[in-house]
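We read letters as residues; the fold follows as tokens. A sample entry reads:
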Amino acid sequence: MQEQSKDKPMDFKQSLFASYANIAIMEMSLYNSSDNFLRPSHKEMLYIYCIWSHPGCTATDLVEMFSSSKALVSQTILSMQEKGYITREKDPDDNRRQILRLSDQRLLESTQELEIIDKASKVLASKYTPEQIEEASRIICDFTEEMRHLATKSRFH
């Protein structure tokens, strides 16, 4: 696979897609390296990331995030729960709501992923200052949040 040349200027759009692809390749490599790993579908991985990165996430939150039907989200959640990827817990502040959480099994399997991310972060820290890393993190989050906002906005126009 061709890597970005150090002499060429960075193309932000291409870098974003390459980053997404690299994360997917890392995950598939981990899943394919062991028969013991859970093997979520692409859609299930998206749900897993959303549940993991949004503490207190509910089915309603997923319906809104993905502009999906309640029935489709409920079906996916049930399937993921049966496969052992997630659990549902009553919201202590509102008994009508169920909080979605990653299962202990999924968290255990995430250990290897997180170790890889930690090692890559240490390499990054040896190349860049904490301020540069923080700024890059902020730019990536701002950019991807704007993309999500624009996609949501375009649905309603």
About this structure: The chain has two domains: 39-102, 105-157.
